[in-house]
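Revision sheet: structure tokens.
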Amino acid sequence: AAMAGKAAADEQARKAAAAAEAGDAQRARSEQIAAEEARNDLHNRLNAVLPTRETERGLVSEIGGVQFATGTANLNSAARESLANFAGVVVSYPQLRYNVEGHTDNTGSAAKNEELALKRAIAVRDYLIATFHLDPQATGAMALSANSFDSPGKVPWDGVALAVILPKGAR
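Predicted:
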């Protein structure tokens, strides 16, 4: 009888452990679904105001309309409007972290392009901070080669892309 009682207790403990494990797995799955839904919501909201795509780096929005005169880092009115659209979305995600990356085309020397790309990123960062109190996680330069785009050999603009990154797994 003692053996039967121990076996029954062991079976009950095994079932309880299995139920707890199943509950943990269900909670983890629910959290994963919630994170995916939040990410999809952010992606859709950003995409409504800016071209946004998933990349190996995470969610990237290209702030269209951030036009600079050749060789300058001065924001024009179209740039400020695009940044206002971006700010209107991300302000509702206070825990969101993003990076601002200045880009240039492949015209000119790599050193000059890197310097210009950084100045453009800083101009956008400073505008976001001063106007909307949005402080990016990082600001940097990324001079692009012609092969960085979907159409190899073709750079579609002169120093215009600024990317906002939502790392994979972030909400």
